[in-house]
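User: Hey, quick favor. My workstation is busy. Could you predict this chain's structure for me?
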Amino acid sequence: MHTRIRSYTGTPALVRKCTPFVSKIFPLSLSMVFECDADDFEPDDYTPPDQDTDAPYLVGESAIMRITEALGKTFVPQLLSNVQSLANSTSWNQRRACCVAIGTIFCFVFQSREFSQHTLSRRTGATINGGGRSVRKALKPNLAVLLQMLIGKIRNDPNQWVRFEAIHCVAAICSAYEAHIQEQFHALVAPGLASAMEAGRNCMRVRGHAASATQIFARPGKCEEENLKPHTHLLLNALCNLLKTGTKSVQEEALTAVACIAKVIETDFAPYVILERVAREFESYLSFQPCTFFLSEVLEHQHSNTNARTTGTTTRSCLVSRVFWDRP
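Assistant: No problem, here it is.
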């Protein structure tokens, strides 16, 4: 595979003119992405150990990235025709490969931009060139169809790994078309991410990745207040549940997402933060405000050195929200 990819990337102009090569290389790369085992996914560990880069499914993913770099927009019809046939497959490996292919190509599109240090900064190291702009332009008319398919996977797919990869795709699309996605598709994306943070059907890794994707969707400066406000209650309720039930690393992602939302909606965030002592006096009020945030409670339980990062994230969330209280 490496030898074949090098031949393509070495003479991209010649390869683009050879239709048989273009039509065969993508299915070949996808066949390697299929070669994964359910044990390769750690559902309860949001920060799993580094993966073996020589694993077939990661080699196939890297190949897709490098092919996209070499072929540019010529590769887009191949992508769309293949992922549509895989999306409804009965095999979870193939549904996952569908999401991986989409996510990898959108990662290629946005990697030339400033890359925020989220869980999305992963896996491949292809060199970015001007082909990213042509791919971005070619994919834009298909955003609605792709997002509908991905949100459907997030909500309904029975496999945790497929849902994880679908969330990764949505976050990559939000980064590649930032501001445009938040403006045009907020009614689709925000509820989908909130559903991925629900306990029960979603494992901790899926829930944490959804919180990370929420940070990108609600990125200050890219997401306008009027596009986020209709979904504030839904997102904060989901994030609040993560703060109560998530592991430390997942809590950090949830807190950062809260900070992003607070910075976007600014003073409208104030009703979601109340003093702990007020909460004790007005328990009946809480039954009508399920997404009230007890950031002070989080601070009270994060005094050890092992929780220093969570403490810092919590403090930043409090500061960004511009809501301060006196500690007893």
